[in-house]
Amino acid sequence: MTHETPYRKKLIEVALPLDAINKESAREKSIRHGHPSTLHLWWSRKPLATCRAVLFASLIDDPSEHPEQFPTDKAQEQERKRLFDLIEAMVKWENANDNDLMATVRAEIQQATNGNPPPVLDPFAGGGSIPLEAQRLGLEAHASDLNPVAVLINKALIEIPPKFAGRPPVHPDAQRTLMGQEWQGARGLAEDVRYYGKWMRDEAEKRIGQLYPKVMLPKEYGSGEATVIAWLWVRTVTCPNPACGMQMPLTNKWWLSKKKGKETWVAPEVDDRTIPPTLHFQVQTGKGKPLDGTVNRQGARCVACSTSVPFDYIRSEGKAGRMGAQMMAIVAEGQRGRIYLAPTDEQANIAAKAQPTWKPEAPLPQNPRNFNTPIYGLNSYDKLFTPRQLVALTTFSDLVQEARERVLADAARAGMAVDGIALNDGGMRANAYADAVATYLGIALDKGADYWSSICSWHSGRDTIRNTFARQAIPMVWDYAEANPMSDSSGNFQGAVDWVVEVVAASPYIAKGEVQQRDATASVSGMSHPLISTDPPYYDNIGYADLADFFYVVAPFAWEHLSRPVQDDACA
What we know:
about 575 residues; 19 strands; 5-stranded antiparallel β-sheet; alpha+beta; 4-stranded parallel β-sheet; 14 helices
């Protein structure tokens, strides 16, 4: 607003229906399918309900500023109640894409701003909640951040969907199987992401499926073969007792499932007929309970000779490259739930055959508060992954690029002009569209990477894989879960694609979105009187830059042609 315009107090300065806003903001934590938070991991993401309410109330005048319309206190309270009712309706997630309701909300904003609402700028955009909700309210959204991962997330949420809104998919089967559908918003783009994501998954199985074999089921489970959900491993070091010398397992639990009536655990069995003793694992169910884990706050204990082992020894072994791993169980897909099986030599030998051609050898940050693995010798990104996981990451990264080329060719056949202008250069045709699809496929790979590291663990209470970033850190994990990207269960690639597709399909596309990688002090440059709404970072409460490097480092080929900034040291 210009200096000639008298200032009018906004609704946010007087009152808000805080109980309703807080309730819906808390409820969002349990909403999954289609929610923007499921597009890509980001830390301390702001609730959409809060952002939506704050932006609306920052633009709407408080009724007391219009005595000509609301001359009495009672009239003003009635108008506030009407506005509160509208806010309480709009903050509900199920109403976020209610066209009639949101049209009413946008009309209210247009009236309050005399048909000229300001652009909204968030100079610390992070996970993109504020600019996304600005766009949903029909406001031109501008986002900036220094972190390239945050920039990518914002581009995927607010910049790309409006560019390709209303376009049908270009994949070869689109005309045969999807004719007659209305490709409202970014649904056509979402359908292409699904199609080429499935092509990637199927092609990956052709190339590396032999590294992810099925497992033979015993008779009590009906015999036959079953797809593996995860291989469970335990880290090992040599027992320091010279009379023992066994490869002792390091784990704080032996539980596999704590579900009532399905309790299952690993039973370690020591064979002391060999020198040094050897260890085998059996899976037990029913009555009883497992042994205590071998690792606690004081250190570890050898299951063969009961020698107490201090952490200093374990750390020194890790730093010397002498920490190993042994398969301790296999989780398979069953007709009635998870099936837990003892490991086999065949399965272990197949895993050992994986030979990655590329490794992300960048060093991990020396920050013990957020990165605990370096003190155990896992001091570079490649050491956070098994060889088989590195093969999978490389294969899917390559396939993102190959999928992009297929999209480009199919877009040209569908009549989209090939102009050579990339998405990041403002392109709107075939080249940019291929970049857009590849961007979302790269994001799906990032989601996969979060489930394909040796920092993932098995959640015995929910019978599922706990991802790398179960909290805002990369901790040391003693027993880890190696997911099968080709399965239909947690940690599979197609599931990651499906999460991305749902977000893209539900993206708001009403207003323009623009995302820049830049310093917050430069973000206002060139903008005329923006509404600045932001949630600045809290100094070092969360190590955003170091944490985000995980995605920037482990899947670089997936970023090659994507809508990303060019500064490779942006996270440093």
